[in-house]
Specification:
single chain, about 325 residues, alpha/beta, TIM Barrel, eight-stranded parallel barrel
Length: about 325
Amino acid sequence: MNRVPYTERCALRSSDENRQWLRRAVAPRKAADMTATGIALPSIAEMLRGYSIEVNPRDSKVVDAATDRLDPGTEVFLTWIPGANPMDMVGPAARLRRAGLLPVPHVGARHLESAAQLEQFANRLVSEADVDRILIVGGDRGKPAGPYDCSLAVMRTGVFQKAGIFRMAVAGFPEGNPNISDIALDEALEGKVNFARDARLQLSINTQFCFRSEPIVEWLQRIRSRGIDTPVRVGLVGPSGLITLARYAVRCGVGNSLHLLSEHPSFARLLIEKGREAIIRDIATVAGSESTASLPLSIAGVHFFVFGGFHKTVDWINDQRAR
């Protein structure tokens, strides 16, 4: 079935329509919103329960701050830095683990240089940092550095399972990927879900960050309709400036949404200030009536990309949870 891309539909809207959406979404609520069946929708605080966050393992100050500021049991994702030695993640992962946090190292399939490197990395994560979960991504590079061209290829090696890691997250792309067709993305996700089911892995999905709720909800509805019931964490951006956001948006494959924002700067300013509340509330409103679980469409929680704004992100989360 042919689908009109979300970004093409969104581009047809006027800036007034975009502003109206955001203002409706962030408007104060006087009472608990209800679904059509009379069930109360989850609040922002409830949607933030069990959130995860992403940090740069090379930023020792942020890693130290995470051990001080995050609740025990919080999943802390450690990004794979292209060109860096993946073994450099082992030390930060161990520090997080000793503080009662749950480190989730990224594994970039196309960045792995050899089977020996993969095996050494898996064994050190477990033996030195007590890691029990990872995120496997394809890796943003044209030619693989070694024998693995996709995340499924790494999963199929069984190296992490042999080391004792059975919790794995993979990436989801509500707005697509500029280098991969939607059909290929759908097939790849289905392949990973099927493999995880057969291998009895505990699989989850972390999505790319989005600036609006519609692509997230539509993507969730689509994968659920195809029988994919894997838990999903919705990716959101923590407080950050437009220039920083622009740089990471292009890198993370959501440049189309960024182009929309650049054409409506007043909307962009509102989104930076209030967009997280808008997206969370809109997801709950749009999808909540279809939910039979505690969160809409069986969402497992929210995942934050901090882009250098770790403290501002944690401040915002704590403020929302205190309300």
